[in-house]
């Protein structure tokens, strides 16, 4: 098959293909053979219908069907053979298909333009890293201290106040009848923690030690327990104890018990290690911001043409995302992890196009540049790295099946997006080592992220 390529625009190619007539004839004959096994013609047995009869009765339909399929296949093959990175379906411009002659096809296709990336090794970046303060170190210590806190009974007060820890027995009834799960003994809860039914906290404040009290609560109608949903529930409450939280003393013993995995030996050692961990975290955050800045700078010094059709699709996507953000209830739910079987039409107005076209172009430029750099730097993400990332998600979500999640992500495209994100991140991490970075420790308020 003869193929010629001509530049129409920076992002559009014209393809001229010549398909030999013999190839068309062979395809048509094969089509007629299959057709003869299916159709019925009076006077002939199925499968024994002469080719001339089939051509006479079905010729125009067969020619159209065979030409459509043959031209579509050959255009796709030409695009692949010539290494064109098509970003949309090709468009047929013209076709010459005279009887008994070779078929000439003219088609156009939008492509990713050829480009070279220059100048990124000379980039200089100011990487600002947030200064870790004593207050932040103390906040971590406070978290450890809260975890080791114990509750102890009050000895100087017998009346319940807000935020108190109280130990209660209760029996709950609806219309005078008990229900499953409506009884507990020695139940310890903090008032104001929102762990009691709404409306209970206020009625328990002011109770005296060992007092019994009926607390009536209106249960919301949407509660999962249909036995009590939408009804009045009476809780017969007995106050058994009023307690307060007692924090451990800040000493070396506390430090040693705070986190066995960190192996703190003393309070001084604890403070030093916490500070070092926080500084390490802030440096990672600084590198995250630096990677974004680097990607933006590479894009700025390497402007590339973007196919108009692809740009329009990106604008449409951004308009759709903005609409979802403004009106999330309008985006109906198809179930977790399920890909929409259809796409709602998004009308892009001229105002929308003007608003989003610059940012859409930058997003696509950056995407193409990062993909090319990943290829040039031979950046790959292997299966073990993917699995490790999925396992991290599983640990965060809790109770999920990693293999099942991976299969779902493979179906709905999330796995591909994860792979691309990880590949991009590895690329930028490698590029940071090839540019000049000036680190600066600054107050957190000086750090401005995009």
Structural summary, described in words:
The structure is a single chain. With 450 residues, the chain is an alpha+beta fold. It has helices at residues 21-36, 51-81, 134-147, 200-204, 252-258, 267-301, 308-326, 350-376, 383-397, 402-412, 414-432; strands spanning 2-9, 12-19, 91-96, 103-110, 124-130, 150-153, 165-174, 177-190, 212-218, 232-246, 436-442. The strands form three sheets. Strands 6, 7, 8, 9 and 10 form a five-stranded antiparallel sheet that branches. Helix 5 (252-258) packs across helix 6. The radius of gyration is 35 Å and the shape is flat.
Brief rundown of the structure:
By secondary structure, this protein is an alpha+beta fold. It contains 11 helices and 11 strands.
- List segments where confidence is low: pLDDT < 50 over at least 5 consecutive residues: 332-343
Q: SS-based structural class?
A: alpha+beta
Number of helices: 11
Helix content: 40-55%
Based on Cα principal axes, name the global outline: flat
- The rounded Rg comes to 35 Å
- Element-by-element helix/strand order: EEHHEEEHEEEHEEHHHHHHHE
Query: If you average the pLDDT, what whole number results?
Result: 88
Largest sheet: 5 strands, antiparallel
Total beta strand runs = 11
Strand content: 15-25%
Distance between the termini: 51 Å
């Amino acid at each position: 098959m003869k193929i010629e390529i001509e530049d129409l625009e920076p992002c559009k190619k014209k393809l001229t293909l010549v398909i030999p007539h013999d190839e068309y004839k062979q395809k048509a004959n094969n089509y007629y053979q299959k057709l003869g096994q299916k159709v019925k013609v009076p006077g002939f047995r199925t499968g024994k219908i002469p080719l001339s009869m089939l051509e006479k009765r079905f010729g125009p339909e067969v020619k159209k069907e065979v030409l459509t399929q043959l031209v579509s296949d050959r255009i796709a093959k030409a695009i692949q053979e010539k290494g064109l990175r098509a970003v949309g379906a090709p468009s047929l411009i013209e076709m010459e298909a005279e009887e008994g002659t070779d078929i000439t096809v003219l088609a156009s296709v939008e492509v990713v333009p050829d480009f070279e990336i220059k100048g990124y090794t000379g980039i200089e970046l100011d990487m600002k890293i947030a200064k870790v303060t004593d207050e932040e170190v103390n906040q971590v210590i406070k978290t450890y201290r809260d975890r080791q806190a114990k509750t102890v009974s009050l000895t100087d007060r017998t009346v319940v106040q807000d935020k108190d820890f109280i130990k209660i027995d209760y029996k709950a009834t609806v219309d005078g009848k008990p229900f499953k799960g409506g009884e507990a003994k020695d139940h310890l809860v903090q008032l104001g923690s929102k762990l009691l039914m709404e409306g209970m906290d206020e009625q328990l404040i002011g109770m005296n030690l060992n007092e019994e009290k009926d607390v009536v609560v209106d249960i919301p109608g949407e509660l999962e327990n249909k036995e009590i949903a939408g009804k009045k529930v009476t809780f017969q409450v007995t106050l058994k104890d009023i307690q307060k939280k007692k924090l451990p003393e800040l000493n070396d013993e506390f430090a040693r018990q705070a986190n066995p995995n960190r192996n703190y030996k003393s309070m001084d050692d604890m403070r030093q290690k916490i500070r070092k961990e926080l500084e390490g975290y802030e440096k990672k955050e600084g590198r995250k911001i630096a990677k974004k800045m680097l990607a933006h700078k590479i894009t700025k010094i390497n402007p590339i043409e973007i196919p108009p059709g692809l740009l329009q699709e990106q604008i449409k996507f951004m308009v759709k995302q903005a609409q979802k953000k403004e009106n999330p209830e309008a985006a109906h739910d198809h179930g977790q992890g399920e890909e929409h079987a259809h796409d709602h039409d998004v009308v892009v107005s001229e105002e929308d196009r003007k608003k989003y076209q610059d940012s859409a172009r930058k997003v696509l430029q950056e995407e193409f540049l990062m993909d090319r750099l990943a290829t040039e730097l031979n950046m790959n993400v292997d299966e073990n790295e993917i699995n490790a990332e999925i396992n991290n998600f599983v640990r965060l979500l809790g109770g999920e099946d990693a293999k099942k999640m991976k299969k779902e992500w493979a179906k709905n495209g999330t796995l591909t997006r994860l792979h691309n994100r990880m590949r991009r991140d590895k690329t930028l991490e490698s590029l940071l080592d090839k540019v000049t970075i000036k680190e600066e420790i600054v107050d957190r308020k000086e750090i401005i992220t995009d």
